[in-house]
């Protein structure tokens, strides 16, 4: 929402960030419990410019109300649902319930609680924290326009060989040796966009966002690592990132585009020469110094041709 007035252009959005909610669904007749913990952020686009220009709050949906709505809607959801479905439900509510709201953006980060296995048996009500996180960002416009993104944060992956980096620009500042043998480590963040563009075109069951999230994660990992025995050679993070994104687009027709962020987390070869003694440690692809920073930042978005942008 923007207004030009007295030489000032105002663009604004307001919302509530980091609303933490956990929900348990207790199985009938002693069946297993299902559990999620979500961190929900809401932004509303609404015509509340008088609040900024004149201190008139008449059209403001209080952010406290947004927070309460998260708990109220979680309570109403009597069946297990995915973060995406909860985001759509909240987005539909905010954009249709309030005449002043033209669009709602709901972002959710799911805490990676996983059902625990005891003696290989899934526990009925016990969970432990995993690593990478499932995320979603849903935009719902008044009238039903929809954008659903899902994502992964913090998928840490590493391979000890089958990676190199050669043929790059060399100048007087370049010290990095060319190599066909190095470690490759990254923490993948991915965000992909589904092709549904209206709340009426969202597929119902059996389409399952949770399963799709697991499928995309598998395709990303399979492409990064390659076959179990021999792996696959990576000539750069850039090429591996591209192949990962391309594999997702070619495997899932409901996904229009994917953004991947893959920091290059360096493992530096350790050589310890001394002035007087023979070399204490000579690097032989064995001892490394892991570093978090500085790190390479490699990021790209792949979009399917002919996507309805
Ligand atoms: O895969 C890589 N891509 C780069 O752009 C780069 N730059 C660098 O120093 N090492 C690497 N590795």
Model description:
One of its GO terms (cellular component) is peroxisome. α2 packs across α3 and α4 packs antiparallel against α5. The protein is built from five helices and 14 strands. 24% of the residues are buried. The chain is α+β, with helices and mostly antiparallel strands and 309 residues long. The two termini are 21 Å apart. A hairpin with an 8-residue loop joins β3 and β4. The strands form four sheets. An eight-stranded antiparallel β-sheet has the order 3-4-5-8-9-10-11-14. Strands 1-2 form a two-stranded antiparallel sheet. It is globular. Uric acid binds next to α5.
Brief characterization of the structure:
With 309 residues, this protein is α+β, with helices and mostly antiparallel strands. The chain is 22% helix and 36% strand. Helix 2 crosses helix 3 and helix 4 packs antiparallel against helix 5.
How would the blueprint of this fold be written?
Elements: E1 2-5, E2 8-11, E3 14-25, E4 34-46, H1 49-54, H2 63-76, H3 83-97, E5 101-110, E6 113-118, E7 121-129, E8 133-141, E9 146-159, E10 184-194, H4 209-225, H5 237-251, E11 255-261, E12 267-269, E13 288-290, E14 299-303
Antiparallel strand pairs: 1-2, 3-4, 4-5, 5-8, 6-7, 8-9, 9-10, 10-11, 11-14, 12-13
The protein binds uric acid.
């Amino acid at each position: 929402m923007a207004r030009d007035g007295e030489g000032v252009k105002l663009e604004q959005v307001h919302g509530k960030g980091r609303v933490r909610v956990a929900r348990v669904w207790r199985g009938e007749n002693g069946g297993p419990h299902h559990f999620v913990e979500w961190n929900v952020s809401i932004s509303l686009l609404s015509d509340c410019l008088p609040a900024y220009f004149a201190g008139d709050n008449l059209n403001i949906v209080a952010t406290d109300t947004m927070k309460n709505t998260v708990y109220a809607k979680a309570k109403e959801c009597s069946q297990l649902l995915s973060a995406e479905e909860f985001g759509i439900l909240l987005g539909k509510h905010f954009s249709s319930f309030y005449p002043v709201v033209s669009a709602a953006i709901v972002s959710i980060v799911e805490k990676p609680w996983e059902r625990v296995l005891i003696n290989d048996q899934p526990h009925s009500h016990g969970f432990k924290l995993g690593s990478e996180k499932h995320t979603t960002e849903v935009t719902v416009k008044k009238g039903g326009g929809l954008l659903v993104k899902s994502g992964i944060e913090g998928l840490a992956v590493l391979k000890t060989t089958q990676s190199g980096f050669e043929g790059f620009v060399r100048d007087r500042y370049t010290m990095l040796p060319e190599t066909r043998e190095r470690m490759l480590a990254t923490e993948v963040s991915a965000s992909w966009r589904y092709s549904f563009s209206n709340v009426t075109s969202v597929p119902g069951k059996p389409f399952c966002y949770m399963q799709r999230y697991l499928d995309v994660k598998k395709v990303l990992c399979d492409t990064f690592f390659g076959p179990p025995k021999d792996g696959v050679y990576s000539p750069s993070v850039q090429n591996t990132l591209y192949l990962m994104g391309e594999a997702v687009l070619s495997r899932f027709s409901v996904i229009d585009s994917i953004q991947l962020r893959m920091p290059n987390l360096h493992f530096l070869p350790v050589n310890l020469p001394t002035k007087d003694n023979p070399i204490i440690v000579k690097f032989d692809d064995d001892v490394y110094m892991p570093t978090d920073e500085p790190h390479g930042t490699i990021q790209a978005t792949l979009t399917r041709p002919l996507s309805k942008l």
